[in-house]
Amino acid sequence: MKKASIIMIIGSLLLLGLFKFPLWNIMLGAPQYPDPLGMNIHIDGIKGVSEFDLQNIDGLNHYIGMKTIPKAEEMWEFSVFPKVILGMALLGVIIGLLGYLNKVSYKYFLGWFVLMSVLGILGMYDFNNWLADYGGNLDPHAIIKVTNPDGSPMSYKPPLIGFKKLLNFDVTSLPHTGGYLMFIGMSFTLIAFWLGRKTSVKKIT
Amino acid sequence: MKNILTSSIAMLVILLGFTGCNNGNQSGGKSGALSNNIAEKVYVAPGEYDSHYAFISGGYSGNITVYGLPSGRMFKEIPVFSQFATSGYGYSEETKPMLNTSHGFVPWGDSHHPDISQSKGELDGRWVFINENNTPRIARISLTTFETEEIIEVPNSAGNHSSSFVTENTEYVVAGTRFSVPIPQRDMPIKDYKGNFQGALSFISVAPETGNMDIKFQVLMPGFNYDLSHPGRGKSHGWFFFTTYNTEEASTLLEVNASQNDKDFIAAVNWKKIEEYVNNGGGKMMPANYAHNLYDEHTHTATSTIKKEVRVVNPIDVPGAVYFIPTPKSPHGCDVDPSGEYIVGNGKLSANLTVHSFTKMLDAIEKEKFAGEAYGIPILNFEDVLAGVVEQPGLGPLHTEFDGKGNAYTTFFISSEVVKWKIGTWEVIDRKPTYYSVGHLTIPGGNSGKPQGKYMFAMNKITKDRYLPTGPEMEHSAQLYDISGDKMELLLDFPTHGEPHYAAAMEASIIKEQSQKIYKLADNKHPYAAKSDADTKVVRDGNEVHIYMTTIRSHFSPDNIEGVKVGDKVYFHVTNLEQDFDVPHGFAVLGQNNSELLIMPGQTKSSVWEPKQVGVWPFYCTDFCSALHQEMQGYIRVSAADSDVPIKWSLGEDIE
Fold first, then answer.
1. A78: closest CA of chain B, how far (Å)
2. Which chain A residues are within 8 Å of B627, Cβ to Cβ?
3. Whole domain around residue B105: which residue ranges?
4. Which residues pair with A42 in a beta bridge?
5. Nearest residue in chain A measured CA to CA from B517
6. Residues 617 to 656 of B: which have CB under 8 A from any A CB?
7. For position B646, which CATH number holds?
8. Which pLDDT does position B126 carry in this prediction?
């Protein structure tokens, strides 16, 4: 149980990587952008991969009537997400410590994992909603209007994950370092649960 | 019978075809394009980069052109000494000061010899310097922005030809005068040339961090013509060598009268000695009048300062600083090998190539073995300094470069060829024809202590029959050779712009990495910059109207302007708000007695328009910038001089 608790603590601490590294990354490449434009989504705001990427993305997006990329203060998520991540990391560490001192059972590890997963899914849902709004809620005076075969206006929503072709742009959306650290951290907590269970079963038999 | 005739003719045609091919292969030797894939050696596939940059002087275009090697593709023309309507250089308010001189605004120049800055004898890719021959000037071009950043006029000089070569740590860039003149300039009979005219050799210091130039001192030499020059390097670092002609000091019909002496001189100048003399207060300040023009990358604006004095040194006041080495016969090129030991004097009327030894020169100086003196300057004995002679290598030797592998390559103007010979044995190893009448040649790094001897290109004066004709005038032709093997191999012909005198070339890596992509708008300190649409405005100040304008894909702010009157002086100050690589915007207004502007991302440029007719005149973006480039336009309303239409402007709404 001690080993499991340590893994639980490490796993929770890995969440803190999100304060340094981006959670997600969206790259936009096109023939005239051999060096693709890119945005990194941090838990506290969106930053360009290169210095002027956001400005250049906004410049291009104005043709299709997209809103400009929101500043950190324009979205409640960017003030709430850091608190949630910090809270979950702290909670994980506390559970881990209590587990180490045999005050709580390994089942709490799973509980943390489930809570984190639910929050994560909610976060992804929220993120996807934002992408849909960003890509679909277009200025009616947009210079370029492209419609789908059925006559509905084309949405420029980037993919939540994976690759999509949007007009002349190849858009790739994937987790970034912070996101990977979070996933690794979460798998650690699962391992901690499994290890805790194993040691506890051994004790009983 | 008819059939036999037909088939014979057919046979003949086929035979001719075959022999034609054979002849082609024979005459081209190994250079047949299909026989050994020469095309592949110069082919740079789409999306791939050339391995070398070449900066080729534009001669009478006054500019520098940037080429890639081995493809021979031209990438850019950098305006230096000439107005350049393509970008507005020399037309825009910011760049007009760059072409200021003590003779006023000079919109043209004759650029000759580019040279890349060096550190420890190796090309460092920071700047390229180039001389202007006609109104003597030296320019410094940044190899980060590829813009001319500084031009300094050279007083007391005339025909600034033996320039602009740099010492091995870019301590100095030299500006030697081709024509000797009265110093100071004055009204005097030309026939009294001899003994009265002088030649100034100017040593221009280069500040290590900024590159800023300053004339540290001028050596006032006898009234010969100082043709070309080269810095010593390695063991001869601290010396500079200048070829001379017209040591006869003739002042008329020089073709004959300056070709009488069997030997002219190479002037060997110990600049370190003179520098020390000057640092100790030597020399004297002399009244002068010359412009120093400096472009500030942050204000995007040049300023011109007229300087009023220059320090001059009489060489006989610094014993041991200057010597003359006799060299046959009207030597043109003066080239120092990478080790610094050999000084090649290319006597253009001589049948042989003369190579002097630096070690022997020092030895002769130490032993004071002098053949005489000229105007107090010791003349060394030809035989005492001679290292060797390349016997009868060709006709009309001009310039020599080195490959760093112990070989030298000399161009021969009259016999139209490049001859490769071995340093030390002086034997000719190879020769290749050029088409035609070759002047300079360049090996990347060939003017440094560390040549990058893979390619060599020759710059020819005559082009006929190499390309599709374009009327009586054709661009000059350069020819690229592979010199990595024992024998030179002709790879490519490519046209150059203007008259390519000399070129500086180097491996692409350093320059490519440091090349700037945009100007940061945040760093723009131009006094009339509008850094956002909120800063745009139109301000009247007497009869001057200043328009603070921005451009971004695909609109101008403001796009409609009223209240301008006939007789006003209208300044368009246009700031390009883009921060994206390779997205300039252009600006032009109908009837402007000026040029367009081409404004780089983050840059501000100003253009003056003086409307002479009432009306509503359009302006537009001249550089296709986006899908809505055609819509990137606006109007300026010009009212009668006595009208009372107030200044107004708009963007996106009607003017009220």
1. 26
2. 63, 143-144
3. 52-514
4. A45
5. A52
6. 626-628
7. 2.60.40.420
8. 98
pTM of the model: 0.91
Last residue of a domain, one of B487, B514, B541: B514
When scoring B518, B519, B581 by the number of chain A Cβ atoms within 10 A, the one with the most, hence best to mutate, is B581
Q: Are residues B315 and B185 in the same domain?
A: yes
Residue B27 scores a pLDDT above 50: no
DSSP letter (8 states) at residue B594: S
**Across the interface, which of B552, B581, B627 has its CB nearest the CB of A59?**
B552
Same domain, B83 and B106: yes
B400: β partners: B410
How does pLDDT run across B157-174, given as a tens digit for each residue?
999 999 999 999 999 999
Please check whether residues B465 and B416 belong to one and the same domain. yes
Whether the per-residue pLDDT at B2 is higher than 60: the answer is: no
Helix A77-100 × helix A2-14 angle, to 10°? 170
B480 and B539 inside one domain: no
Is B38 contained in some domain?
no
Residue with tokens 């723009």: B524
User: Is B308 within a domain?
Assistant: yes
Task: State how far the Cα of A17 lies from the Cα of A182, in Å rounded to an integer.
Answer: 7
Q: Nearest chain B Cα to A61, which residue?
A: B553
Q: Which of B552, B553, B579 sits opposite A52 (nearest CB)?
A: B579
What total number of domains does chain B contain?
A: 2
Residues of chain A positioned with their CB less than 8 A from the CB of B580? 52, 56, 59
> What is the value of ipTM here, to two decimals?
0.85
Q: B477 and B568 share a domain?
A: no
Check whether residue B329 and residue B409 sit in a common domain: yes
Name the residue in chain B with its Cα closest to that of A55: B579
Q: Is residue B34 part of a domain?
A: no
Res B14: pLDDT: 44
Q: How far apart are CA B500 and CA B114, in angstroms?
A: 10
Domain boundary among B514, B546, B565: B514
Q: How far apart are CA B160 and CA A42, in angstroms?
A: 59
Pair type for strands A45-48 and A33-42: antiparallel
**Contacts with A51 from chain B: Cβ below 8 Å:** 579
CA angle, corner B653, sides to B651 and B655, nearest 5? Answer: 90
Q: Is A102 on the interface with B (CB under 8 A)?
A: no
- Supply the pLDDT for residue B3: 54
Q: Is residue B605 within 8 Å of B623, Cβ to Cβ?
A: no
Mutate to test the interface with A, among B523, B533, B579 (most CBs of A within 10 A): B579
* pLDDT of B69 over the 60 cut: yes
- Decide if pLDDT at B11 tops 50: no
User: Is B20 part of a structural domain of the chain?
Assistant: no
Same domain, B237 and B152: yes
What pLDDT, on the 0 to 100 scale, is given for residue B129?
Answer: 98
Mean pLDDT over B144-163 rounds to 97
Instruction: State whether B554 and B429 are in the same domain.
Output: no
- The candidate with the shortest Cα–Cα distance to B596, out of B614, B584, B578, is B584
A-chain residue closest to B552, CA distance: A59
CATH, residue B303? 2.130.10.10
* Rounded Cα–Cα distance for residues A124 and A128 (Å): 6
Q: Does A167 touch chain B if contact means CB atoms closer than 8 Å?
A: no
Q: Does the pLDDT at position B504 exceed 80?
A: yes
